[in-house]
């Protein structure tokens, strides 16, 4: 068995770099750590942190293929973020022009959760702890 220490990062390839950069920084509140343009690959790489913890690498590539997201395609299912007050966060999303699904209750834990999508339709979950 591997001796893993922690999740290091999540890599996301976006179709519109500026739109996704704005979404992850201005809507989700990630802080840019480092942005690199890789001319030989016609690509940007933006390292993003949440509350001081490095979590996401946002990449751009010319003409990336579309990935099937729903219904329940194999591969990455969604990203999930813990929140203290889900109703407050859903209202904040709405104020920023992002529509979330109706809040549901997890049948196993009894906790509230909902989903919305990033600009490339990657499902993102908010889970009230």
Automatic annotation (TrEMBL):
Pfam families: Glyoxalase. Keywords: Metal-binding. InterPro entries: Fosfomycin_Res_Enzymes, Glyas_Bleomycin-R_OHBP_Dase, Glyas_Fos-R_dOase_dom, VOC_core, YwkD-like_dom. This is Glyoxylase I family protein. PROSITE patterns: VOC. One of its GO terms (molecular function) is metal ion binding. It comes from the Bacteria. Residues 6-129 form the VOC domain.
């Amino acid at each position: 068995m591997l001796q893993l220490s922690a999740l290091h990062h999540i890599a996301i390839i976006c179709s519109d770099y500026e739109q996704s950069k704005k979404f992850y920084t201005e809507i989700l509140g990630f802080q840019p750590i480092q942005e690199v343009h890789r001319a030989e690959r016609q690509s940007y790489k933006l390292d993003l942190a949440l509350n001081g913890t490095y979590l996401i690498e946002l990449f751009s590539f010319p003409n990336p293929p579309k990935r099937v997201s729903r219904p329940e395609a194999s591969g990455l299912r969604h990203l999930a973020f813990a929140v203290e007050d889900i109703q407050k966060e859903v209202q904040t999303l709405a104020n920023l022009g992002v529509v979330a699904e109706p809040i549901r209750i997890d049948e196993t834990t009894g906790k509230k959760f909902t989903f919305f999508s990033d600009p490339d339709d990657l499902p993102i979950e908010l889970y009230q702890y």
